[in-house]
Amino acid sequence: MQSVTNQPAIDPAAVATAERQTLSPMSERRMKRLLEVLCDGTRLKIVRALRDNQLAASDLASVLGRSRSATSQHLRVLREADVVQPSRNGNVVRYKLASDINAEILEDIGHAFDRLERGPAA
Length: 122
Known about the structure:
By secondary structure, the chain is mainly alpha-helical. The chain has helices at about 10-20, 25-40, 40-50, 55-65, 70-80, 100-120, and strands at about 55, 85-90, 90-95. Helix 4 (about 55-65) packs across helix 5.
């Protein structure tokens, strides 16, 4: 990749490493969408609630202290971003976290939040 300033890099090896780690435009769009979806407190709570559970929308609404319809709207956004997956059993739909790259990212984010909850290491 040609430098915009046309000046030689101070550390060409570091620049080459950084360039290799740059996301492709498609991956960048996907990551941006995932982060935008998670920039909502209610959706973060839903993701946390689903870390080790499968819950119906009404049960999630109870956990969140919100209406079922408001919770369903948040679930729709998370579903469209491939963050959660629904599974139907009769007339009950339960939600779980997706099991793709988004799930790995969410797991890493969850671990980081766990460290924040514990506070600074003593």
